[in-house]
Amino acid sequence: MDEVTIPAGSLVRYPRTGTSGKAGNTMLIDGIEFVLIESSGMYYRVDQLILVDSVTAKRERGEEKGAERFREQKELSSEELKDAFDDVTGVGAG
Asked: Does some domain include residue 92?
């Protein structure tokens, strides 16, 4: 296996998931070197990372987006829920 070195501060990408960011601290575990990708806060095997020239910020799926979506939805009253379930036919009709 080739000796791979990732200097701290380098821009790296983990191709399997697309995680990318700035390399941080390194850690040796059972003779295998791992490096921290600061954007994820997780350590990755150095031999599994590639050096990149730039990093594109990933669009966040975001819990906030989901929360905003639910805030925008109309709240149903208990009567409206009852009416909706009374109209169920076919599978799941009881």
From this structure: no
Residue 71's pLDDT is 59
Is residue 1 situated within a structural domain?
A: no
Its domain, for residue 71, covers 11-86
Task: Quote the pTM value.
Answer: 0.56
Length of the chain: 94
| Within-domain flag for 16 | yes
Q: What is the pLDDT of residues 6-27, one digit of tens each?
A: 899 999 999 999 899 999 999 9
As a three-state string, the secondary structure of the chain is CCCCCCCCCCEEEECCCCEEEEEEEEEEECCEEEEEECCCCEEEEHHHCEECCCCCCCCCCCHHHHHHHHHHCCCCCHHHHHHHHHCCCCCCCC
Q: How many domains does the chain have?
A: 1
- Token pair in block for residue 54: 């730039």
36: alpha, beta or left? (left if phi > 0; alpha if psi -120 to 50) = beta
